[in-house]
Design brief:
By secondary structure, the chain is of the alpha+beta class. The protein has two domains: 113 residues, Phosphorylase Kinase, domain 1 (2-Layer Sandwich); 196 residues, Aminoglycoside phosphotransferase (APH), C-terminal lobe (Aminoglycoside 3'-phosphotransferase, Chain: A, domain 2). Helix content is 45%, strand content 16%. It contains ten helices and nine strands. A hairpin with a 5-residue loop joins strand 2 and strand 3. Helix 5 packs across helix 10 and helix 7 packs antiparallel against helix 8. The longest helix has 26 residues. The termini are far apart.
Length: 327
């Protein structure tokens, strides 16, 4: 480990020694890595180091090797650093995130030193879920959305989510579904004109939730805030459900899961924003669930036409939205 990085970690944690470093994963397109550091002489037995080192050009696994893609990634890491510095401390125990112990930003390199969620009890990652796991993630999203309702997104993405239309013109141009391509600006406008805006996680997939292993019911914390920004909460909810359920489950459980999310959101809004009418918020956002789904579907069909998430349920939802907006 580079001496400067080791010194940053020791200064942030009070550690005498870094005993061991284990790479957890490489970052998308080879832009760095995430490392667990075991410490001695610190109140933190371990911390997470997110080391972003920007190459001259990306090596995208799906071939989207453009200057626009590279600039988007650079911006995403700037946003994440800003998020941890200025916003993360507003998250309560009902939507836990890692604590940020240090941020160092240089021209082509960023260092984030974060508390280790494994050491905090969120040590389980899941590739498949039961209904109680889905509810735990919806609990987190409801609390997060209520916490940042009508919040400024200064320093974050003006529109959250990595698939936002204005950042994805290449994928839109590649989209062969002409009616969807023509409707894309209308879909985006529906979400942008939403009266009730919050901060959305922007990449709320199952892989970015960390579960407790021993609690009576699952609880989760979330990681990876590169695409956090302003938006309608349905963008997170639709994206999350599509990330962990098969199409038949998405359809069969749609009403049940939305009812659960809005029940939890209403409770959180009453506590955090008593002047906001939770019933009006729910009415607006429910109407935008299929719009948010269609928005991601638009990106996916242009980015990776053979992706497993492109299914008959998504096509039906999206077709309904397109026909409604173009009528």
């Amino acid at each position: 480990m580079h001496t400067d990085i080791a010194n940053t970690v020791r200064l942030a944690t009070g550690a005498q020694t870094i005993l061991n470093a284990t790479v957890i994963q490489s970052l998308w397109s080879g832009y760095g890595e995430i490392v667990r550091l075991e410490l001695e002489g610190s109140t933190y037995p371990s911390v997470i180091l997110k080391h972003i080192k920007l190459p001259e050009a990306g090596n995208h696994p799906r071939g989207w090797n453009t200057g626009r893609s590279h600039k988007r990634k650079i911006r995403s890491y700037q946003v994440e650093a800003h998020w941890y510095q200025d916003y993360a401390n507003r998250c309560s125990s009902s939507c836990p995130v890692p604590d940020c112990l240090a941020v160092n930003v240089a021209e082509n390199e960023t260092i984030l030193v974060l508390t280790d969620l494994d050491a905090s009890g969120f040590n389980l990652r899941k590739e498949s879920v039961k209904i109680e796991d889905v509810r735990a993630c919806l609990d987190w999203l409801a609390s997060f959305h209520a916490t940042f309702l009508d919040s400024s997104a200064e320093g974050l993405w003006e529109s959250g989510g990595y698939w936002h239309l204005t950042t994805r013109p290449d994928e839109l141009a590649a989209l062969e579904d002409i009616s969807l391509r023509e409707a894309a600006p209308l879909i985006d406008l529906q979400l942008q004109r939403c009266r009730y805006q919050t901060l959305i996680h922007g990449d709320a997939k199952l892989a970015n939730f960390c579960f407790t292993a021993d609690a009576p019911k699952p609880c989760v914390a979330a990681v990876d805030f590169q695409y956090v920004g302003r938006g309608c909460g349905m963008k997170d909810v639709a994206y999350f459900i599509g990330s962990c359920l098969h199409e038949d489950e998405c359809e069969a459980l749609e009403r049940e899961l939305l009812d659960y999310y809005f029940s939890r959101l209403g409770q959180e809004v009453v506590q955090k924003h008593p002047r906001i009418a939770a019933s009006e918020l729910e009415a607006e956002w429910r109407e935008l669930y299929d719009v948010a789904w269609a928005d991601f579907h638009r990106f996916l069909k242009g980015w990776s036409p053979g992706h497993w998430k492109i299914n008959s349920y998504s096509e039906r939802l999206t077709l309904g939205v397109v026909e409604r907006l173009q009528s």
